[in-house]
Design a protein that fits this description.
Chain lengths: ~240, ~290
């Protein structure tokens, strides 16, 4: 039961003339929480953007359920089962929470599971049920992150890709959100997570990749990684 | 006193049509930050659509609305692919130039075919009398139709799946793409809706006043004033500002020669901009 859902091979990408990724390969196993960690500017966000299609990969392949999806546009990937919760949340700030969730369910694949998903989202985040009528831009940072994750879930995704979930949030909120991710994993969702908080990422993930300077530095199970001296020194501050 | 009141009521009626015209302009601005300088000739295209349909087919002027609406929509999708698609997200000067080029081509074509003669479409709708004053029937019908289409646009944007996608693209295009909205198609559809509205407003103006191929520029300017007063990108604000402009025209009309109305309008426009730089109706930011 360790079937690979998403496979990235030799990914190279960048912005304009600047190459950021120099051949990143990774895999996300179905039902697992896979983490990508690394320092600021290592290329974590760029990796996710290339996977989701918001920037075009220069070289390399992205395979999803065995199909080559490298050249699909972002909205086609959403239809295929990708949900990216972007860095900085990127909510529809002038629209209500309810409308944000409704738009999350825009892909046709989401229609059949709409009621079920809405139910799940409100169970995970009861606060959103209370704030449905409120404009998303007027929520607190933590609530906005909840809307961002909820919006991703509404698309009934096969894989939930989350970029820097903990950024700018209070530690107690970050802890709660990671508990939520665990619950989602327990019901079988595949999650790919980029996180600058290496402690947390290693605590919740099943497998992790360490990226440095646009390349894969190392990979392994969290326990193996936490035991490596260079990881302890560079990322865990031990 | 009653005379001024009657002028103001008539101003509201005409102003609703101005507001509708401006809604077309503000829709494109709100969704893709493009000022469509071909808006004037598009309004004129609606006028000539009315003229051709009524003179060639002999149909009632108001039956020209559906074909003008549909024609305007497809013209808008075409305009998007010709002059807007590559300019979205680029510096504003590029889309200003490309849509201005379309403006020149349309005016040139119109002048070549029709010259600059004055055209007039006969509309016979009985007016409504209030004491000594009679409100012209065409003004009443045109304002009702304008209000209806404005409401339809509002309903579409707020209560339909596609309309919400349009608002999502206006708010955050990258996020819209991420949730699975084909944003390029949405932009093309938006320009289609914008031109459909502009053409219909032109058709309605054609039932009120005589027009020439060159009428577009003054309506573009009026739309621009209305759009700015209403708060850029806010269709409902545009409708209210349109009514305000109509009322202003109606209120000053009894006292000054007609050529002074534009001077007064733009004078007040500058004053209003100094007092309310964000527009009169922009209190709810990003109302789209």
């Amino acid at each position: 039961m360790s079937e690979t859902l998403l496979k990235v091979e030799g990914l190279e990408a960048g912005y304009g003339e600047v190459q950021v990724l120099w051949g990143v390969s990774l895999a996300a196993v179905r039902g697992h929480l896979t983490a990508i960690v690394g320092a600021n500017g290592a290329g974590k966000t760029t990796t996710l953007r290339a996977i989701a299609g918001t920037i075009a990969p220069w070289r390399g392949r992205i395979l999803f359920e065995g199909d080559d999806v490298t050249r699909l546009s972002t909205h086609e990937k959403a239809e295929r089962g990708f949900a990216l919760v972007p860095e900085g949340r990127q909510l529809f700030t002038t629209m209500t929470v309810a409308e944000n969730l409704e738009l999350g369910a825009f892909p046709k694949r989401a229609a059949r599971a709409y009621a079920e998903r809405l139910d799940q989202v409100f169970t995970l985040f009861p606060r959103l049920a209370e704030r449905q009528r409120q404009l998303a831009g007027t929520l607190s940072g933590g609530e906005q992150q909840m809307v961002a994750i909820a919006r991703g879930l509404m698309s009934n995704p096969d894989i939930l890709i989350i970029d820097e979930m903990s950024l700018g949030l209070a530690p107690v909120l970050v802890y709660q959100l990671f508990q939520t991710l665990k619950k989602l994993k327990d019901v079988g969702l595949t999650i790919l997570l980029v996180e600058q908080n290496v402690h947390l990422a290693l605590a919740v993930s099943d497998y992790a990749y360490v990226i440095a300077e646009g390349k894969l530095f190392t990979e392994g199970r969290p326990a193996e990684l936490s035991a490596m001296p260079e990881i302890r020194r560079a990322y865990l501050g031990l | 006193m009653l005379g001024i009141l009657a002028s103001i009521i008539d101003g509201v009626l005409v102003g609703l049509v101005y507001g509708l015209a401006a809604m077309g302009l503000t829709l494109i601005w709100g969704v893709m930050d493009v000022v469509n300088l071909s808006h004037g000739p598009v309004i004129v295209a609606g006028m000539f659509g009315l003229y051709l349909l009524t003179s060639a087919l002999g149909i009632s002027p108001y039956l020209a609305l559906p074909p003008v609406l549909i024609g305007g929509f497809f013209a808008g999708v075409l305009l998007y692919w010709i002059a807007v698609h590559r300019m979205v997200g680029k510096p504003p000067l590029m889309s200003l130039l490309s849509t201005f080029a379309v403006n020149l081509v349309l005016v040139g074509l119109g002048t070549a075919v029709w010259g600059t003669a004055l055209f007039n479409v006969e509309v016979s709708v009985p007016g409504v009398s209030l004491g000594r004053y009679t409100f012209p029937g065409p003004h009443i019908v045109a304002s009702l139709m304008a209000a209806l289409i404005a409401y339809a646009l509002y309903f579409f944007l707020h209560h339909s799946r596609t309309g919400k996608a349009v608002r999502a693209v206006a708010n955050n295009r990258e996020a819209a793409e991420l949730v699975g909205i084909p944003t390029t198609r949405v932009l093309a559809l938006t320009v289609g809706c914008s031109l459909a509205i502009a053409c219909v407003s032109g058709m309605l103006i054609g039932t009120l006043f005589p027009f020439t191929v060159l009428s577009g520029d003054s309506y573009l300017l009026k739309s621009f004033v209305v759009t700015v007063l209403g708060g850029f990108g806010n269709p409902l604000g545009a409708l209210f500002a349109g009514v305000a402009l109509g009322v202003l025209e109606g209120a000053v009309a009894p006292f000054v020669p007609i050529s002074w109305t534009l001077v007064i309008e733009f004078g007040l426009f500058v004053l209003a901009l100094i007092a309310f730089p964000g527009g009169l109706f922009s209190l709810r930011r990003g109302a789209l």
